[in-house]
Write a sequence for this structure.
């Protein structure tokens, strides 16, 4: 069970922008959340809401023209927590792939096409664990076997193009867990995989999480993945976290109109309407800085205050926050 008294990651007021020649994209707009030891946090929301940028910001992998302009990311690895955003780059490099690792969204573009699978998995073992080439090779084969790659002793010498999409994703998982990190961030780990392979990857992630006792952040569009994998869920919209709480609370009784609309758009086996529920309109442009509630133009529950004031997240139930004037008024 998660230990609620021990936070592992505390994100406070994180803001990330992409400054282009004639405009600025406000990708992440001052979000805050906490992940405790042993927990799995699901981050959901539609495309372009800032989920992946949040993950890359935590890892400090934002390149020009992107820039983290504000915030803190406190990592409680030792007795004294450290702010990842203020660490010198050489110290951050000691954490990446070692204490915190990431399963990227597209394994074909994330894996180096001219390096063998084995050498790419072994690299963090050389760098962070100081293993000899022989020991790293033996550990790599065991990792490939652990994630379900058949004939691992032969296949570790092959290249990414010789693997299927599902097997490449297994390789990414093997790389992520090589050093037994405290935190694994999985960015759309089941994207572009068929449903059978998706189920296998999710089962693998659950099994490995229990084996190596790690925490996880899972970024996805799929609310079913969150229901299966996560203890907590953060709902993002237009670069903001609009609702955050335990999975059971959010799924049983969502409070934010956007979360309610998301839940309403899920097909139900026991109820098959002629048309699925949709959310009218489109997300706001992130080029213009948002002053009111970002969901205001699409919201059926809006009041006049929503147009000009963006509500801060408020705890309306124990360990359940929502950024909505209407939901906060109802309590």
């Amino acid at each position: 069970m998660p230990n609620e008294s021990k936070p592992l990651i505390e994100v406070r007021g994180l803001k990330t922008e992409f400054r282009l020649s004639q405009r600025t994209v406000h990708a992440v707009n001052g979000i805050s959340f906490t992940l405790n030891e042993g927990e799995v946090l699901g981050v959901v929301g539609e495309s372009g809401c800032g989920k992946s940028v949040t993950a890359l910001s935590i890892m400090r992998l934002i390149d020009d023209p992107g820039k983290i302009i504000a915030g803190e990311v406190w990592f409680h690895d030792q007795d004294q927590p450290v702010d990842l955003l203020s660490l010198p780059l050489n110290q951050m490099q000691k954490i990446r792939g070692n204490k915190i690792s990431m399963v990227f969204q597209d394994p074909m573009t994330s894996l180096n096409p001219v390096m063998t699978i084995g050498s790419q998995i072994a690299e963090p073992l050389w760098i962070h664990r100081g293993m000899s080439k022989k020991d790293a090779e033996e550990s790599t084969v065991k990792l490939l076997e652990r994630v379900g790659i058949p004939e691992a002793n032969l296949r570790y010498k092959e290249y990414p193009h010789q693997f299927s999409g599902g097997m490449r994703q297994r390789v990414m998982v093997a790389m992520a867990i090589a050093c037994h990190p405290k935190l694994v961030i999985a960015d759309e780990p089941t994207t572009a995989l068929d449903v059978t392979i998706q189920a296998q990857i999710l089962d693998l992630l659950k099994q490995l999480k229990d084996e190596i006792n790690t925490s996880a952040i899972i970024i996805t569009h799929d609310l079913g993945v969150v229901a299966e994998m996560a203890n907590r869920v953060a709902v993002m919209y237009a670069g903001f976290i609009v609702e955050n709480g335990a999975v059971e609370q959010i799924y049983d009784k969502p409070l934010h109109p956007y979360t309610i609309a998301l839940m309403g758009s899920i097909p139900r086996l026991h109820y098959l309407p002629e048309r699925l529920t949709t959310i009218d309109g489109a997300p706001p442009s992130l080029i213009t800085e948002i002053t009111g509630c970002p969901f205001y133009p699409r919201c059926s529950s809006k009041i006049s205050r929503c147009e000009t004031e963006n509500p801060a997240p408020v705890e309306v139930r124990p360990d359940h926050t929502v950024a909505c004037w209407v939901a906060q008024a109802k309590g």
